[in-house]
Amino acid sequence: MPYLRSLLFALLFYASTAIFVVGGAFLLLGPRRYAMMGLKAHAIVSLWLLRTVVGTRMEVRGREKLPAAPYLVASKHQSAWDTFALIPIFADPAMVMKWELTLIPFYGWFSRKFEHIFVRRERGPAALRRLVQDAKDRAAAGREIVIFPEGTRRAPGAEPDYKPGAVALYEGLELPCVPLALNSGLYWPRRKLMRYPGTIVVEILDPLPPRLPRRAFKDELQRRIEAASSRLIIEAARASDPPPIPAEVLARAQAEADGR
User: Any idea of the CA torsion for 152, 200, 50, 104, to the nearest 10 degrees?
Assistant: First the structure.
C-alpha cells in the first residue's frame, strides 16, 4: 500500500506540474507577480496532494522570527520537496539556482520570469560576484533571497558540505540571515519513488545579524542548521509512525544534537 500511494502521488504530482507549467504558459506574458501567484498555487496543490494521497503533512515553526524583508535565507536542502514547498512561506522569494536549470523548457522559462538568481558555478569567483550583484537587485525590490548553502541535496545525517555562496551573499548584502532547518529527506528521499506519511517540519531559526566576521558567520550558520536538523531527525524517529531511518543516521543526529 505505501508503494502504491507513492506511485499514485508521483503520477498526480507530475501531471499537476505539467498542467501548471504548460497550461499556465500565458503567465509568461504578464506581470511577474501573476507568475509568482501561479508558483505558489502549484506549491499549495502539491502539498495538498502529498497530504491527501500519502499522508505527509507540513509544519512550519518560528514564523514569528522572520524579520522584515529583504533578508537572506540559508536553508538545509535534503529533498526535491524543498524546491517548491518553501515558496509559500515567504512573500516574494528569489531562489538561488544552478544556471543549467534555465535550459529546461517551461521550467527554465518560468524560472527566468520569476527573476530567480542563477549561478554558473564553473566561472568561479566571477560567478560569486554576479551572484551578489543579482541578489542585491532582488533585495532592492524588497524580496527574500533564498539559498541552499550546500548547493545540492544532501541525505539526512550526511556530513555537511557548505559552499562559499551563502557567505558571499551575507557579506555582499549586509542583511540579516535566517537559518532554516528541516527533515524533508526522511519523508521524500532523494532519488527514490517512496514517500512516507508523517510530518515534514520546517524550523525557522533565530536570524544572524548582518556584518558578523566571515568565519564567525559561517561557523554559526552551520552549527545552528545542523544541530536543529539533527534534532528534527530524532523527533521523527520518536514519532508514533516513524519513517525508515538508518541506525547510523540516527546516531550521528544524536551526536550532532548533543554538540559532540
Answer: -10
